[in-house]
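COMPLEX REQUEST
Ligand: NAI
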Amino acid sequence: MSYKICILPGDGIGPEVVENTINLLKTLPIDLEFIYGDIGYDCYVKTGNSLPNETLEKVKNSDATLFGAVTTPPNIPNYSSPILRLRQHFELYANVRPCKSIPNKISRPGINLIMVRENTEGLYSRSERVEDEGNRAITEMIITRKGSERVIRYAFNIAKKNNMKKVTVVHKANVLRETTGLFLRVAQEVAKEFPQIVMEDMIVDNCAMQLIKKPEQFEVIVTTNMFGDILSDEASALIGGLGLANSGNIGENYGVFEPVHGSAPKYVGLNKANPAATFLAAKLMLEYLGENRYAKLIEKAMLKAIKNNQTTKDLGGSLNSIEFTNVVINNLKEML
Ligand code: NAI
Ligand code: MG
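STATUS: Structure written out below.
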């Protein structure tokens, strides 16, 4: 099979981790054509647009997209994160974030959970305004039946596919009664379609605590946009941090895969950033394309490096990004 992969390196360490990942992908005997597109703050400075139409076209005409990271400056009026726009434009409604223990002392053992975050609405609806001469600020939290139903069904299907037995629906329906209340009610309806899977529900603040106290209890977690954003970063800290956290933004027709971390400005150009999160994002991308064997091998090659303590500094090792990449490439070559 041959695939067209749209590559959106973005800002900061985005281009570095993406380049390392492309070198890893090129080791595989699959025919991949890489099509580069611009996105992010540097692109905005150059063109006045952080997500140009040509980029949307490239994503549209590819089989899958690999995205690095972008810088989003908080103080430019009307500037909104292009990755949020990309998720909304292509209706990438499920943000899937696996979190699995690694063989390294930095990681807690026994964790194997998949966080599924609603990705197009909630508090990140981008519907904001100010009143009272800037002294009162309002952000709308939007929850729809359609938006909830599709992501919750996706979460139950992921549980089914991975032979997992439980889906935990995380909400704050005791306070945000209408919005997250609707999310919870829809979950109770969808759960009836999956009698073999147990649904439990948990209030978000308790979930934040339970993740630290007893993370082994979770299998699939599904939740609204901002809760999922925060809880998934928290969960990643249990297994080694943002250097490993990876994600897929998945809709009916498109998939965009990315590390969870941002552009980490302090690491730019230092050859220090851990590309492992982007390797794992590429693994999710290969699964999405149906290349399960190569997806597994990428993970295996990376875990072998980690087990041998051949890692970047954030995981306690002493390798730079390129050295780490080369170790993983060599492991992969041996496994092919
Ligand atoms: P960040 O994720 O860029 O960095 C936070 C810290 O995590 C870093 O200082 C570093 O210690 C660690 N870290 C991140 N990536 C790492 C890697 N690959 N290897 C090793 N350590 C790593 O988050 P921050 O500093 O809050 O935001 C920086 C910029 O990134 C902001 O402009 C923000 O808006 C943007 N951002 C973009 C995201 C995206 O493109 N999806 C997601 C999060 C933030
Ligand atoms: Mg985040």
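REMARKS: The chain has two domains: 1-100+240-336, 108-239. The chain is about 40% helix and 20% strand.
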